[in-house]
Amino acid sequence: MSDELIHVRTAIPGYAGFADVSARRLSDQQVRAWVGERLAALSQRLPLGDASTAFDDALLHCEFGDQRVIKALDDSRFAAPEVAAQLEAEDGRLLNVAAAAATVDAAGLAAFIGGVREALRRRTDAIIGR
After folding, report:
1. From CA 72, how far away is CA 110, in angstroms rounded?
2. What is the pLDDT along the chain (130 residues), one digit of tens a residue?
3. 8 Å CB contact between 50 and 107
4. Structural domains in the chain (count)
5. How far is the CA of 111 from the CAs of 99, 114, 118, in angstroms?
6. Domain that holds residue 20
7. Which residues are within 8 A (CB) of 3 and not within 5 positions of it... i.e. 6 or more apart?
């Protein structure tokens, strides 16, 4: 089991993974919810100022499933162990980036949000690009 997957399963008890369509859809929701919760807590802790538009974009990405991702997750090729491992690793990288929400300060806010948006984009691209 990769370090990323260990991190995901520690952060999200009951992480569904990519074994079947239902699991893939659930894991998508679980990961987006976890990241969204970190963003919401951050917005309670720090004023967003100039970063508010980028923050809102990232939060919306977490709140609403991307229909391209949902449709792609229906494909059975995601159940292949090597593909599932790649996508689970992408989930782990996203969670690692978002976990910094607890410690980011005002000076690092814009860079942090940019990093979250990039990690969300990479995860989306990894899924729909398959």
Report:
1. 31
2. 566 667 788 999 999 988 889 999 999 999 999 999 999 999 999 999 999 999 999 999 999 989 999 999 998 888 888 888 889 889 999 999 999 999 999 999 999 999 999 999 999 999 998 5
3. no
4. 1
5. 14, 5, 10
6. 3-128
7. 92
Angle between helices 52-63 and 109-128 (to 10 degrees): 30
Tokens representing 27 are 């894991």
What distance in Å separates the CA atoms of residue 115 and residue 128, rounded to the nearest whole number? 20
Biggest alpha carbon–alpha carbon distance for the chain: 44
C-beta separation of 122 from 93 below 8 A: yes
Which one-letter amino acid corresponds to residue 33?
Answer: A
- Predicted TM-score (pTM) of the model is 0.92
